[in-house]
Amino acid sequence: MKVWVNAKGISIKPAKEAGKFTVTIAADVPPGTYWMRLVNDEGVSEQRPFLVGTLPEVLEVDPNDDSRMPQVLAEANVVVNGRLNPVSDIDHFAVDLKKGQTLVASLQANSVLRSPMDGMLQVLSADGYVLAENNDFHGLDPQIAYSVPKDGRYLVRVFSFPAVADSSIRFFGSETCVYRLTLTTGGFAEHAFPLAVSLKDPSPVGLSGWNIPDAAKNIVVMPEQFSSRLPVRHPSVTNPGFIRVEPHPCIEEVEPNDRAHAQLVETPVTISGRIGRPRDIDAYSFVLKKGDKRLIKVEASALGSQLDPVLEVFDTTGKAFKEVDDVGALPDPEFSFAVTIEGTYRIEIRDRYLHGGESYFYRVRITNPEPDFSVALAADQFSITPGETLEIPFTATRLNGLTQAIDLRAVDLPKGVECELIKVDAAAKMLKLKLTAKKDAVSGPFRIEGTAGFTRAARFDIVPFGTSTETFWLTVGTPKK
Q1: If you average pLDDT over residues 124-149, what whole number do you get?
Q2: Distance of CA 210 to the CA centre of its chain
Q3: Is-contact 459 469, C-beta < 8 A?
């Protein structure tokens, strides 16, 4: 049995004790979420997340379900790896804190690990009184920032309800209810701001959150390529913020920018803003010519914001002609339109429930909808026998009027595996790529790329984890006699 990880510097090997592994992580491996597979001669497992952090890691130790007998932690800056099991399990952890500190307690369970739990967090006094509680801060995962009023011992309680509601009236737990509980009185980032920088003229970025030092509020980033999710880190902050790198200008909102004082911008542009107070509305205006096309996309929930954004678009007369709320699985709106009348158009962004605050941040992209495409596969692992040919079907989706032919190829193939390039005409949607394995072929990862004047990596949706991968696995079987 071997373990494959999609990162250099991480080594995972089976330990002597069955069912356990030894993990070695190089000092230069950035913190983040990585993906691993178990591999043997018969094939591979599905991909599973493996998290690398910056704080000490400890294991939850049962019994700790009684607040009078909590698991005492040696320090308040730690990550607890735990499990709520059996049904109705409750975990308690004790930490010693000082007056004036801010304790951040953040649970990763459903959103990252896809544990079937709707977690709850509480901060308690040493004698069991609830001082703060939260659920559903990031999706179904809770988070608390608690200002410590006096020196003493405090408790953090973890319990859950089922992620999919059922008829039971009880707390929830099972073998699969695993979680990571981050506790820290040090720097903890909620997001980076601004939320985007221009590749040609990047601006400094600051981390926003709790216990953030001044040095982490003015970080110079040097992006080398376009990235939809570029981490921004500082050594004194536990976790990174993320920004987007754009080919066009990136700006921040300038108050006042309400309906009567719409901020004039030139498009294409990406704007970082906040709905800073209840009932706040942010407005932006821009001049368009007849025949122009624009795609307006508001990102908030996808960035971890508390904002549930509503986008409203106004024509040259000031009349609203489109209101967009949820689109797909996320409550982040987008809208595209073609201009028939030249003039000044306006958009407005508000919270669906008219809430607002520091955590109600957003990124709005107003761009020209350029021709594009995507390539998707229905699986992320395949098998082949030496001397035979494997056909891999996948779907190409052309976007924004792309008519150019797409060239497909497999890259970074394992030793002994060859790929037959396929020329795809403009009308084709269902495609096939042919792989052939020689006698000396070995199993391993590979990628698939499509090219139509520019390159896009083929992807597979890892549905249980709400993400996708561009790394596929090919198992080379025993050749036929």
Answers
A1: 96
A2: 20
A3: yes
Q: CATH second-level architecture of 372-476?
A: Sandwich (2.60)
Classify 57-184 by CATH class.
Answer: mainly beta
Q: Report, as an integer, the average pLDDT of 183-203.
A: 96
Torsion sign over Cα 375, 376, 380, 383: negative
Separation CA 323–CA 305 (nearest Å): 20
Which is more confident, 465 or 365? 365
Other beta carbons within 10 angstroms of residue 100's beta carbon come to 11
User: Is residue 464 predicted with pLDDT exceeding 90?
Assistant: no
Whether pLDDT at 317 is above 70:
yes
> Region 329-350: what's the mean pLDDT?
93
User: Predicted confidence band at 418 (pLDDT cuts at 50, 70, 90)?
Assistant: very high
Q: Flag whether pLDDT at 84 surpasses 90.
A: yes
pLDDT of the residue at 177: 97
Q: Which residues contact 49 (CB under 8 A, 6 or more apart)?
A: 33, 34, 35, 36, 112, 113, 465
Residue 279 CA to residue 355 CA, distance in Å, equals 6
| pTM: predicted TM-score of the whole model, two decimal places | 0.90
All CATH 2.60.120.380 domain ranges in the chain, comma separated: 57-184, 250-367
Q: What are phi and psi of 55, to 5 degrees?
A: -100, 160
Average pLDDT over residues 131-156: 96
Q: CATH 2.60.40.10 in the chain, residues?
A: 372-476
> What secondary structure, in 3-state letters, does the chain show?
CEEEECCCCEEEEECCCCCCEEEEECCCCCCEEEEEEEEECCEECCCEEEEECCCCEEECCCCCCCCCCCEECCCCCEEEEEECCCCCCCEEEEEEECCCCEEEEEEECHHHHCCCEEEEEEEEECCCCEEEEECCCECCECEEEEECCCCEEEEEEEEEEECCCCCCCCCCCCCCCEEEEEEECCEEEEEEECCEEECCCCCCEEEEEECCCHHHHCECCCCCCCCCCEEECCCCECCCEEEEEECCCEEECCCCCCHHHCEECCCCEEEEEECCCCCCCEEEEEEECCCCEEEEEEECHHHCCCCCEEEEEECCCCCEEEEECCECCECCCEEEEECCCCEEEEEEEEECCCCCCCCCEEEEEEECCCCEEEEEECCCEEEECCCCEEEEEEEEEEECCCCCCEEEEEECCCCCEEEECEEECCCCCEEEEEEEECCCCCCEEEEEEEECCCEEECEEEEHHHCEEECCEEEEECCCCC
CATH code of the domain made up of 250-367: 2.60.120.380
68 within 8 A of 133, measured Cβ to Cβ: no
Q: What is the pLDDT of residue 222?
A: 86
Q: Give me the residues paired with residue 78 across strands.
A: 183
